[in-house]
């Protein structure tokens, strides 16, 4: 069993969730989840993200790239901003921002702050 499978199983058992229950929560069959945990199969990107979000850990932790399960608030903020900045829909708008990379990133961060504030309300 490789790191990803071991960590999924560890987190599931630590949270006292059966394979059947967790498989339903992430939208896969029990057999597929069992294969993830045994290392015989790897989840696709979207499923990997669902697993990470469910257990509130980073995908890097699940993949064994770090032993630190969760991001610091600053790392989470930066990861959220990067995900926002790299969405295909935003790429079209982003092309319209000024050519200066520094200025474009500042304006994009300003937009991100507005969106974050609106989400909290």
UniProtKB/TrEMBL annotation:
CDD domains: HTH_XRE (cd00093). InterPro entries: Cro/C1-type_HTH, Lambda_DNA-bd_dom_sf. Keywords: DNA-binding. It holds the Pfam family HTH_3. Residues 8-62 form the HTH cro/C1-type domain. The keyword DNA-binding applies. Gene3D superfamilies: lambda repressor-like DNA-binding domains. PROSITE patterns: HTH_CROC1. The keyword Iron does not apply. This is Helix-turn-helix domain-containing protein.
């Amino acid at each position: 069993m490789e790191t990803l499978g071991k960590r999924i199983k560890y987190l599931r058992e630590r949270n006292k969730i059966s394979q059947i229950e967790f498989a339903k929560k992430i939208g896969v069959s029990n057999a597929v989840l069992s294969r993830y945990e045994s290392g015989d199969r790897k989840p696709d990107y979207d499923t990997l993200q669902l697993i990470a979000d469910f257990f509130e850990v980073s995908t890097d932790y699940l993949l064994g790239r770090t032993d630190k399960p969760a991001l610091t608030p600053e790392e989470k903020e930066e990861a959220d901003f990067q995900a926002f900045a790299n969405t295909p829909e935003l790429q079209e708008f982003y092309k319209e921002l000024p050519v200066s990379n520094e200025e474009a990133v500042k304006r994009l961060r300003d937009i991100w702050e507005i969106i974050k504030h609106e989400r909290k309300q």
